[in-house]
Amino acid sequence: MIYVLRLGHRPGRDKRITTHVALVARAFCCDGIFIEGRDESILKSVEKVKKRFGKKGFLVDFTNSPRSLLNELRHRGFTLVHLTMYGISIDNIIEKLKGKNILVIVGSEKVERYYYEVVDYNVSVTNQPHSEVAALAIFLDRLFSGRELYSKFEDAEFLVIPSERGKKVVRIGKEKEGKGTN
Amino acid sequence: MIYVLRLGHRPGRDKRITTHVALVARAFCCDGIFIEGRDESILKSVEKVKKRFGKKGFLVDFTNSPRSLLNELRHRGFTLVHLTMYGISIDNIIEKLKGKNILVIVGSEKVERYYYEVVDYNVSVTNQPHSEVAALAIFLDRLFSGRELYSKFEDAEFLVIPSERGKKVVRIGKEKEGKGTN
To answer: Domain spanning B2-151 has what CATH number?
Structure first.
């Protein structure tokens, strides 16, 4: 099982970035996300996507004590991986991580020293500053060897058919041609 | 050369997502980004990163006529690639794109039908809704075959040394151990 922990979410300021982190976690086949803090708007956005595109089992949960969560998951055998531009290169560690239960930790602007010390691995996706959304996507893409791009979720209401132009969306037993606009 | 075009930027609402798109473009070795609209706060954030971590030649520019920009780059021989969850799978097209001059187009919530029709390729990074930040990162990672993760920018003031714990940052001729907090 793969879970994501999003540290230091600030409602308002981080709303959209955390929503993107959650949607990447879902689309790239994680089992759920824990968010430090509470923000119903994220839950609402993800629920809407789950309803239309499936994966209803994907967990979105909030926590005020991420340290307890870390301890609990560690005791349940999870490997703790913190994504940070200061860590060791993803390519040096990814093979060791395949097939394990993992908690992937992503921060917002500041991550306390505690997390650097308590995790099993601090892992970098480039040593440049960029985005926790991008870092998570690359990490999961390497972890699942690219297969996650083809995941189909059984309980989806809509299925997108890859198309050269415009939008092609299939609804259970019914085909609908999009107009190229939302 | 690889440029990114970010369509439909709404100052305020999109500020942080567009900043992440721009920082991914820089860190993953693009030559610059064009943003539809105008938002000085993005310029400021990217300039700060360029000053500290290098790649001063990375262009951040604003445009009110993305269609003219598309036409101009097309006439200059660029291949136009639009990232969208409705497009053909990235794995089916990426080999054809290697070594070309490319304009990578990413939208915000709504992208006009025009763009689906005018580009050379509509390309999907999963057919699930997630994030333009993640889609851009995966696209560039596949395009550059993962080598972009190791880019060093000559004009950097600081260099991050991959480290198992905490933060290790080198300044020209001077080594500084971080404390594991920002």
So the answer is: 3.40.1280.10
